[in-house]
Amino acid sequence: SVLQTRINCAMAGRERRRLLPALLPLLPVDNRVLLPGSSMVVHVNDPRGMNLVETQLWNEENWKGKYVGVVPRHGKEEKLHTLGTAASVSQMTAWSHPRPHFSLLLVGLCRFRINEIKRETPFPIAAVSQLDYLHSKDEPVPTEVRKLADEFRASADELVDLLDLKNPSTVKLKRLLDSLPDHNLPDLFTSILRSSFQEKLEVLDSVDLSERFKAVQPLLLRQIATMKLLQKATNSALDPTLATKRMPASFRIVRPGGRGNAGTTPTSTDESDEISELEQRISSADLPEHALRAAQKEMKRLRSLPPQFPEYAVSRNYLDTLLDLPWSKSTEDRIDLGQAREDLDADHYGLGKVKKRVLEFLAIKQLKNSLKGPILCFVGAPGVGKTSVGRSIAKTLGRKFYRMSLGGGCDQSDIRGHRRTYIGSMPGRIIQGLKTVGTNNPVFLLDEVDKLHKSLQGDPAAALLEVLDPEQNSTFTDQYSAPQEQLELINAIG
User: What span, in angstroms and rounded, lies between the C-alpha atoms of 144 and 240?
Assistant: First the structure.
């Protein structure tokens, strides 16, 4: 049994020290460095890289056993670095948008040196020599490196203790640190610390373990100093402006309770002026009761938010939208059937049935001011005059005219708006149209209704029901501007 254990240990050691093949396909990466023991996602879209993936990996059943030499390259320079990292492909995905390319998840195994480039096309292949290998936990560190390794591990423990232990990633890093061999610490921390391309190249070139510890220790101490400085500034009881001035410009942060840093955010006077202006607009705007309650509630929330918070801009934009809507601004109808007939004849030749139906619509509206419908629907080939008839109706009524093209629409949010919980949310095009014309009773032309499409974002044709149904459009609610907007005053034409 002792003999078998020794045999198993020897086989495991050979597996870790596994020699690279004499010839290795090379995958250049621009301004990036893959180190042994770390992973990296590489997007391959250049011709030679695509040829490498297609011939050596994509069309092979046992592609997970293949090695790729990842070599750093300065930008678009053709000259490759002399040292690289042999990597195994852990995951591979092919993409066709926006153009064909592959995404490879690479895991670094060991360093190698390029002895000679054997072939350049269809992809580079080089003769290489292996320089090191991944070590196991039970392998001792050489005596002359022991002190450097202990100092490095102590600094690494100090850095991890400065991080938020409630974060799952921090917990995983702490567990990894406890189980990782000392040989692999410099490469791992170089890959996760904020360091430049040149600094990572220096670590890659440090084949000797002691030189590697000496190269990474300053990066680790720099990160610790930065974390302590940020932590001190966050927990400091000093004035936020004074704390900011004492910090280097590159490390300045925004205190949660502060009102901003000098030169980057408005002063307290500007903020009070902005809030006073909004309060004045709310009091002077003739808002209906439900819209006034919503504006006052949002204004109360805005006063409690620091300007640096993203919610501040969201609340401000919402109030601007709410106050820009023409809640009480409307145009007075002037219906003259004789003049309407003359206008229709002057603008259009023929179209007798269409003109007759429009005049019937106007006559009924003249007799009954509170007309809830119907919705006029014009059907015809492009260019026969559907849009111009709608414009003539607006001209006859003395109302503003707004044309909204729905062709190609596939998102119900175009009609109902986006919820404010989403980044970049905005009101629907109905509300935007009302803001544009500036009145609450324009003539809306919903053009190209037949060209709407369903998608994963919903069916915009179904969302139009609430807009066009006379029994529902009096309580139309946009998902962005929550207060109900009465659409019964709008003349809609499909």
Answer: 48
Largest distance between two CA atoms of the chain: 112
Question: In terms of C-beta distances under 8 Å and separation of at least 24 residues, what long-range contacts does 49-54 make, across chains too?
Answer: 49/102, 49/123, 50/100, 50/101, 50/102, 51/122, 51/123, 52/25, 52/27, 52/122, 52/123, 53/92, 53/102, 53/104
pTM: 0.46
Nearest CA to 175 among 188, 193, 190? 188
Q: Can you name the residues that pair with 128 across neighbouring β-strands?
A: 114
Helix axes 337-347, 352-367, angle to 10 degrees: 150
Full DSSP string of 423-480: TT----HHHHHHHHH--SS-EEEEE-GGG---BTTB-HHHHHHHHH-TTTGGGEE-SS
Describe the crossing of helices 268-284 and 289-303 by its angle, rounded to 10 degrees: 170
Least confident of 42-46, 95-99, 427-431: 95-99
Nearest CA-CA partner of 444 in 493, 371, 485: 493
The first and second tokens of residue 420, run together, are 């404010």
Query: 148-186: per-residue pLDDT in tens?
Result: 888 888 888 888 888 877 777 788 888 888 888 888 889
Res 4 pLDDT > 70: no
On the CB side of 470, CA atoms within 13 Å amount to: 10
Tens of pLDDT along 312-340? 888 888 888 888 888 888 888 888 888 88
End-to-end CA distance of the chain: 87
Average pLDDT over every residue of 46-58? 87
Residue among 258, 261, 262, 252 nearest 232 (CA): 252
Helices (H) and strands (E) in the chain, counts: 17, 11
What's the pLDDT at 201?
A: 92
Rounded Cα distance, 113 and 213, in Å: 20
Query: Which two tokens mark 173?
Result: 């890093």
**Is it the case that residue 132 has pLDDT exceeding 80?**
yes
Q: What distances in angstroms separate CA 2 from CA 6, 114, 136, 245, one per listed residue?
A: 6, 41, 20, 67
Element (H, E) at 176: helix 168-179
Q: How confident is the model at residue 203 (pLDDT cuts 50, 70, 90)?
A: very high
Q: If we measure between CA atoms, which residue out of 423, 417, 418 comes closest to residue 310?
A: 423
